[in-house]
Amino acid sequence: MVNESPDARPRPRRRLRPTRRGKVVLVVGALLVVSAAVLIPLALTGPDEEKQQAQNTLVIPEGRRASQVYEAVDQALDLKPGSTLKAAPTVDLSLPGQAEGNPEGYLFPATYPLDADTTPSGLLRYMAETARKHFAADHVTAGAQRNNVSVYDTVTIASIVQAEADTDADMGKVARVVYNRLLKDMPLQMDSTLNYALRRSTLDTSAEDTRIKSPYNSYERKGLPPSPIGNPGEAALKAAISPTPGPWLYFVTVGPGDTRFTESYDEQRTNVEEFNRNRRAAASS
What we know:
40% of the residues lie in helices and 6% in strands. It is mostly helical. It folds into two domains: 42-135, no CATH class; 149-284, no CATH class.
């Protein structure tokens, strides 16, 4: 979510939703309900076949960070924790120069087949190849040009959208907030980038958090973070390519399915106060 205006007004303490997809949950096995292409249709098989096929696939859901993907690969291949993290720097993933070797954003969410010969290096190459194919599509490159950003920047914006949007329907508006703030030379002030810097996922952001020294601190640094903050899926990418038209500069989810978008700082503060009341009421009950 977006908090303050970059003007001289004092910052209220923020207790705002950072991301509904930031939980450290990686599904390996039968959970094949993802927006990316599912390689093996389990619905057409019997129980025994389903169990066998589920053991031979790895699902990477949308929004997972590279660190979470590495953990999922270790688990799926029954490797010692940290094995994939150690292997990652040695794998040529043919990343864009702007990535500077960081695969974040290019480990595409999908269902990947596994067999006895599968290695961490092979899986990571498969994920990066899948990402490159999606990001090289004509509608992606055309959208990046239309928005006057690079394809890599588009992936970065999509990763923020993936982390911040409460529902798929909100993604286009969240993307518009990002672009509007960039155009106005305002800091993005997104909790999701702080969470990435702090390697956490939380509903609360303190004033102290917003002062951390990190290139991912979008409260103190203007522009986009230096890399994506996760691996976005198709819906978030679509939103980053074609954001919903609108003047919004702020948003906050005051309750489930109720995200308020506004261009008014005062209205944003009112919405934040409602969010805090809802949080306190939920905690007391």
